[in-house]
Amino acid sequence: MKYREMIDQMTLEEKASLMSGANFWNTKAIERLNIPGIMLTDGPHGLRKQGGKADHLGLNKSLPATCFPTAATLANSWDRQLIREVGRTIGKEAASEKVSVLLGPGLNIKRNPLCGRNFEYFSEDPYLTGELASEMVKGIQSNGISACPKHFAVNSQEHMRMTIDEIVDERSLRELYLEGFRRVVEKGQPKTIMTSYNKVNGTFANENTYLLQDILYGEWGFDGVVVTDWGGNNDRVAGLAAGNQLEMPSTNGITDREIVQAVRSKELAEEVLDEAVDRLLELVFATRLDNQAAPSVDYEKHHAEAVEAAKRSIVLLKNDERQLPLRRDKKVAIIGDFARNPRYQGAGSSLINPAKLSNAWDVLSESGLPIVGYAQGFKRMGGPQERLRREAVALAKQADTVLLFLGLDEGSEAEGVDREHLRLRENQLDLLHSLTEIDAHIVVILAGGGAIEMPFARDVKAIVHTYLSGQGSAEALTSILLGDYNPSGKLSETFPIAYGDVSSAPYYPGKEATAEHIEGIFIGYRYFDTVDKPVLFPFGYGLSYTTFAYSELTADRHQATFTLTNTGAVAGEEVAQLYIQKRESSIFRAKRELKGFEKVFLEPGESKRVTIKLEERDFSYFNPTIGAWAVEPGAYDIQIGSSIQLIQLEKRITLEGASVPCEHTKEQFPHYYSGHVHEVKAAEYKRLLGYEPPSPYWDPKRDLGLNDTIAQARYKNVLGKAIYGVVLFFNKFFDAVNKPLLANNVYFVMNMPFRQIDRFTGGKISRQQILKLLKWINR
Is 465 helix (H, G, I), strand (E, B) or coil? Predict the structure, then answer.
């Protein structure tokens, strides 16, 4: 151990004290040994350092910082260098505020488009996720601080996230939910990793020795610190033994005493504690900022960077009759509440207080366009409003083109709560329908963190999806609408025609005890492409104001090289994507998978030779029979495309080798071989898991314990029903008065296990009092 001499000078109590926070955001210091505390704080797409009272869900305001596009937005750029620069800038602002650990990026796989936190995650694809998250980590850590990729692992839903048991087969776990983290660990080399709240196959993530010891520290060689999500500790001693060194936030010594007792009773070897302390000290001394001058921050420069990031990430989804760029001789009406009150970021722990913010109405008004006016059109949080609709229609009749700003409001997607559907609010759809009955051409501009159903897609001329583009979204959008910047964003997730088309729709979310991943490996494009299911917009799709041609492909198992040409009249960037398709496979697998990409800038008429490197893992699958990655010999098609549905070039190669037996036969798994996972029955899923899955439901007759929640109290006596009813009332009340952040915080409390109450209150409500309450509820 590097710090053995220092550790030997510590008392047992001092060593245990370092394993949890000093307060909400800081680690403990030991002044007599000159060990400083360091600060950890939120920051997936900007620094969220709270200057006053601390909370985890973004309720209390933070210090001003540059608000960049969220991960879901940045992923649409497919731009490694851009994302590294964004990370570098966020990390610089963190260092300027003496923040040593920035809690991000988030890189959970988008199993289902309803996940309320998808706006914080990169993609439905683990390769793209891992590549982009690695660049973000490199950028953040270039400032001498630590990034903290999260949430490890399988955090696929927000509902019941602190107690839900994610039941997932080994192959899906490895190929989908862990692969992005592997890439981040091996390529980005983060100094910290954050565990998720949930259980994975029966064991809480932060005390899961298989995930932490066998895979993270063992196979991948991670050499940093594992930190809990805030309040994400269950059994402190079990977590420490599994490899979770730091618990956050402070528990006012409650869990420190548990560690001391475990060591003294020989339940926990003191050497395990010493090794954990050594890892934490390495992080502290590698990232301490108390003895360094803070770097200066130019917020105007950083705002320009935020604008650039947004420009490269916005996606042009439709552009009939070249409606865009806008013509300056055509009158324009601006309609929709989002034009003046932008939706540019998510909610919860990633809520940034932007250093600067403009709106599309103001920026467009200064652009020189002949704008006839603005109309709000609808109430943001829903409900009919006939007067606003009539005003919008009257304004639209004066214009040649309508810029219609629609989107998801702040209550629709947030940390701690999943979306209920993929639709826009009815009042927005009603307004759009009214506008389609007049002669003006409609350009829909969408804001939101992910996929949206679009029954109106055929009725409008153009659709631009800004996602959540940060504080520079208005300037970025304006430059695209006017043609000053050629859009280059491409979707990092599939947009279904209807939610019911999604592979996990019948199984999502897990409502009570478990979340069963019955769809297996077939999520996102892996499902839609395999079963030829029509989609609204496919993975990798996005339009440009120019055109590109692909030619002259050469390929082998190590790389693919091809020529890309800009055949249009304006400069632009193309995201060339490499997919691999196995021919005549003896195992079930997706039709094709993304294994490479490059974003290439070309002037009109310019050509470039583009090379995409390949490695053995790109041809591998995880074989559960042998518990290892394997390459199936045979023919593989190397495909180059502009989206998964637009394959432009193809070259077949053959890989030699001996077949490795796999017990997943077609007779045992007919629906997984066909990809029709909506039809999987219980027996087939049981065979996939290799065991009988636990019940997905709570037992309402069982007494509530510390790992149960207030939500479950509704099944108990009058006291339990009353507690649940009060919490539910406040949740509905805050939602009704358009206070979505407060409503989400109350929902968070409803789904919090009783074991967290004493820790979140710093012992003000004691464990003894909680046990007494449970005794009363269980009577």
Answer: strand
